[in-house]
Amino acid sequence: RELGRGAFARAYLARDPHAGGRRVVLKLSPAPSGEARTLGPMAHPHVVGVHWARPAGGLHAICMPFVGSATL
């Protein structure tokens, strides 16, 4: 299901079949961004990490852990 959308990407709740079906966020955008390069090396409790990033079917995909959802 769609979790959210912004000016450059949409985020979807998905399951990673290569990791036992764990729930992840798959962020898809039509253009590449530096987000994965910036967030990838970071380890901080207030920053969501990146599992992987790669081109996927004409889009650019970033896979992140799903840590829950909330609205303000």
Mean pLDDT across all residues, rounded? 88
Provide the β-strand percentage band.
Answer: 35-45%
Question: Considering DSSP H and I runs of 4 or more, what fraction of the residues is helical?
Answer: under 10%
Give, in spatial order, the strands making up the sheet with the most strands.
1-2-3-5-4
**Poorly predicted tracts of residues:** none
Radius of gyration equals 12 Å
What structural category characterises the helix and strand content? mainly beta
**Cα end-to-end separation:** 19 Å
- In DSSP terms (H or I, runs of 4 or more residues), the helix count works out at 1
Shape by Cα distribution: globular
- Let me know the largest β-sheet: 5 strands, antiparallel
Query: How many beta-strand segments?
Result: 5
Order of helices and strands: EEEHEE
Structural summary, described in words:
The structure is a single chain. The chain is mainly β and 72 residues long. Helix content is 7%, strand content 43%. Strands 1-2-3-5-4 form a 5-stranded antiparallel β-sheet, with no helix packed on it. The protein is globular and about 25 Å long. The chain starts with a strand and ends in a 7-residue tail after the last strand.
